[in-house]
Design brief:
Blueprint (H helix, E strand, L loop, with lengths): L15 H12 L16 H4 L5 H9 L9 H6 L12 H20 L5 E4 L20 H9 L6 E5 L6 H6 L6 E8 L22 E6 L5 H19 L3 E5 L17 H12 L5 E4 L8 H14 L35 H15 L59
Parallel strand pairs: 1-6, 2-3, 2-5, 3-4, 5-6
Helix pairs in contact: 1-10, 5-6, 8-9, 8-11, 9-10
Length: 412
């Protein structure tokens, strides 16, 4: 269903890539090794565990036909250009967010050790605004769900863009450590310096590895494995969320790294090796023929299954021409990440990680999670599974949607 939504003509974000990924996974026969589940749609209340009421109400009511009535609010919530209004916007947000929250629930109940939601990973969305093609931050909401049962959660981000929305959400707590490996310097979103380490109780719990153009497999492996290995040693999380944005691949429409599928998937394989319950999410990725290749290969890696390089026939076979192979060659672009530069950043990060509290020290409890992020536990088993969910909310006049704006939305 996620592939039915469209950001608009010429927009680089194409949900169709998730449909293509699913089709390739099925035609490789990987689904036989997996348990496929359809989570129930998330409610508005679940979204407001992180996002503001005003913002969620806005996403519920906005559509291409009434945009002219909400010009001030489009600007206020940063919706319009990078994050356009399109038909079914709120339902689209519900779909990808349901997969991530539903996956976290399954990990909490120990029903699975690894859960994949390639439609998720929209890591830029903020509490009160859209950002970078992202509207609802499913990563944050999934982590909040995991925090119901896990004292420490590690978030790892290998998207070429900094995982700013997730870092910001947990910047002042030590119950979540964020680790982002990203292009830095005159590049969206412009955050993620090595010196950005968190604040208050979260100081030293935000790890950033800023990178330059041309990052290749060898260089990425030389930093990812030792940094994540050290984090696992000192932080010892009981759950992991791994965001696998495919825009760090060679040849991405918006990217400037030079990773192969194997180089990208090496991160996935390394994290899997720790045997910690893991939620694997998608993210960026804007060369349509390459994203399904990447996420299908990483599905196989997570399953421990070898798949052939020759692509099986599938509904989108013509997209993968002229070679019709899974693996793609990388470019000959220069790698501006010198060994000295990477070693210097590693030294700085290892120094930061020395200051992380040892595992024996009592970590802050749920009541100390900042920004009202604590999530009440729900007794799912007590609910009647045959009872239709009802929207019991009072129908509000539009003027009640945005009380901080001093009245109803203006009509132009």
């Amino acid at each position: 269903e996620i592939g039915n939504y469209h950001y608009g003509q010429g927009h680089p974000m194409k949900p169709h890539r998730v449909r293509m990924t699913h089709n390739l996974v099925v035609n490789y026969g990987l689904y036989r090794e997996m348990e496929v589940f359809r989570p129930k749609p998330v409610s508005r209340d679940q979204m407001t565990r992180f996002h503001s009421d005003d913002y969620i109400n806005f996403l519920r009511i906005i559509n291409p036909d009434n945009m002219s009535e909400y010009l001030r609010h489009l600007q206020r919530f940063n919706v319009g250009e990078d994050c356009p209004v399109f038909d079914g916007l709120f339902e689209f947000c519900q779909l990808y967010t349901s997969g991530s929250i539903g996956g976290a629930v399954r990990l909490n109940k120990a029903q699975n050790d690894i859960v994949i939601n390639w439609a998720g990973g929209l890591h830029h969305a903020k509490k009160c605004e859209a950002s970078g093609f992202c509207y609802i931050n499913d990563c944050v909401l999934a982590i909040l769900e995991l925090l119901k049962h896990h004292q420490r959660v590690l978030y790892i981000d290998i998207d070429i863009h900094h995982g700013d929305g997730v870092e910001e959400a947990f910047y002042t707590t030590n119950r979540v450590m964020t680790a982002s490996f990203h292009k830095f310097g005159e590049y969206f979103p412009g955050t993620g310096d090595v010196q950005d380490v968190g604040a208050e109780d979260g100081k030293n719990y935000a790890i950033n590895f800023p990178l330059r153009d041309g990052m290749d497999d060898h260089s990425f492996k030389s930093i990812f494995r030792p940094v994540i290995g050290k984090i696992m040693e000192v932080y010892q999380p009981s759950a992991i969320v791994l965001q696998c944005g495919a825009d760090s691949l060679s040849g991405d429409r918006l990217g400037c790294f030079n990773l192969s599928l194997k180089g990208h998937a090496d991160c996935v394989e390394f994290v899997k090796g720790f045997g910690v319950p893991t939620l694997v999410l998608g993210g960026g990725g804007y060369t349509l023929r390459n994203v399904p290749r990447c996420w299908t290969y990483e599905t196989a890696v997570l399953l421990g299954v070898d798949i052939k390089d020759a692509l099986p026939y599938n509904d989108y076979f013509e997209y993968y021409g002229p070679d019709f192979r899974l693996h793609m060659p990388v470019s000959n672009m220069e790698n501006l990440n010198t060994t000295d530069y990477l070693d210097n950043v590693k030294v700085q990060l290892f120094d930061i990680l020395k200051r992380v509290e040892p595992v024996g020290v009592q970590i802050k409890g749920e009541a100390d999670i900042p920004a009202d992020l604590a999530v009440p536990e729900e007794n799912e088993d007590a609910k009647n599974p045959d009872e239709r969910m009802q929207d019991t909310e009072r129908k509000e006049h539009p003027s009640e949607f945005f009380p901080t704006e001093g009245g109803p939305p203006t009509t132009n």
